[in-house]
Amino acid sequence: MKQFFSILLILAVSSCATYYQSNFTFNEEFESGQLDKAYKTLQEHTSEAHGKREFLYFVNNGLVLSMMGRYAESNTFFEKAYLFGEDYRTNYLNEVASYLTNPNFTAYKGEDHEHLMLLYYKALNYLKMNNTEDAVVEIRRLNIRLQQLTDRYRSPDKYDRDAFSNVLMGITYEVDKDYNNAFIAYRNAFAIYSQDYQRLFNVGAPQQLKEDLLRTAWLSGLKSEFEAYKDSLQMPTYTYKENEGGELIFFWHNFYTFISITSLRETSKAIQAVPT
User: Fold this and answer.
1) Of the candidates 112, 172, 176, 179, the residue with the CA atom closest to the CA atom of residue 148
2) C-alpha 134: how far from chain center
3) In this predicted model, what pLDDT tens digit does every residue of 123-178 receive, in sequence order?
4) Distance CA 146, CA 123 (A)
5) Is 258 left (phi over 0), alpha (psi -120 to 50) or beta?
6) CA pair distance 123, 117, nearest whole angstrom
7) Other Cβ atoms within 10 Å of 51 Cβ, number
8) d(Cα 169, Cα 146) in Å, to the nearest integer?
9) SS (H, E, C) the chain
10) β-strands 269-271, 259-265: how paired?
11) What percent of the chain has pLDDT above 70?
């Protein structure tokens, strides 16, 4: 029996070393912008698609393919990761083994923020493919998953609503010129800033969101709401003026230990969102 555990430990350590080496190579290539090499490195470890690290394999493939502009392929991998998270069932034998050897023996099911992130990227991919209908579906999935995650915690100070996902939904509806639903999404985002973020993080609604709210109220023909928000937001001189030449929406993704997302509109105006 002692010999069995010794062999098991050696195999586990060897597997761990192989994983960290391949992961280090991938991360190094990815962070230096060598996307083709990073993708090739992932393909050298396709066995992970059915192993303990399949969630990470799916997410990493989806992320790299998205940055390479291969959006449909990217969403195929992100959907696999999403379904893995939905269907995951703990294998208690593996859990026990992981405590006896190392945590890498058990399947990696993904962190909460990673499950939210992949849905965000799916929505963004659909937007880049001009598929606003499916983009909205993914944003709604994101909000549902966030609610499922926050139901686990009882603290009155828990983070249970995300303003950025509602802003993204508003942007998506605006692309379709569905100004009424865009207004509702922006109104929800504004309420989250006012009721949650101000209390939890001392962060108020950004100026750009206030303008988004007024603009879509005007374009929706909601004149009473438009006037009411002008008063409550203390913006009595605001008037809607159509931009000449359209509008640029720029998403800046900053990758460190966690992913922080900030959306910039008109290149200089920031919609500041709390990272998820």
Assistant:
1) 112
2) 15
3) 999 999 999 999 999 999 988 888 887 777 666 666 668 898 899 999 999 999 99
4) 15
5) beta
6) 10
7) 15
8) 15
9) CHHHHHHHHHHHHHHHHHHHHHHHHHHHHHHCCCHHHHHHHHHCCHHHHHCCCHHHHHHHHHHHHHHCCCHHHHHHHHHHHHHHHHHCCCCHHHHHHHHHCCHHHCCCCCCHHHHHHHHHHHHHHHHHCCCHHHHHHHHHHHHHHHHHHHCCCCCCCCCCCCHHHHHHHHHHHHHCCCHHHHHHHHHHHHHHHHHHHHHHHCCCCCHHHHHHHHHHHHHCCCHHHHHHHHHHCCCCCCCCCCCCCCCCEEEEEEECCCEEEEEEECCCEEECCCCC
10) antiparallel
11) 72
Q: Could you read off the pLDDT of 202-230 as tens digits, one per residue?
A: 999 999 999 999 999 999 999 999 999 99
* Tokens read off for 165: 């996902």
**Sequence letter at residue 4:** F
Joined tokens for residue 86: 């939905």
Q: Which amino acid is present at 251?
A: F
User: Measured between alpha carbons, how far is 203 from 57 in angstroms, rounded to an integer?
Assistant: 36
Q: Are 12 and 104 in contact (CB under 8 A)?
A: yes
pLDDT digits (tens, 9 = 90+) for 6-44: 443 444 444 444 455 557 888 889 888 899 999 998 888
What's the pTM? 0.74
* Sign of the dihedral through C-alpha 109, 115, 121, 125: positive
Strands 249-255 and 259-265: antiparallel
Q: Are 191 and 212 in contact (CB under 8 A)?
A: no
Question: How confident is the model over 244-259, as pLDDT tens digits?
Answer: 877 888 888 765 433 3
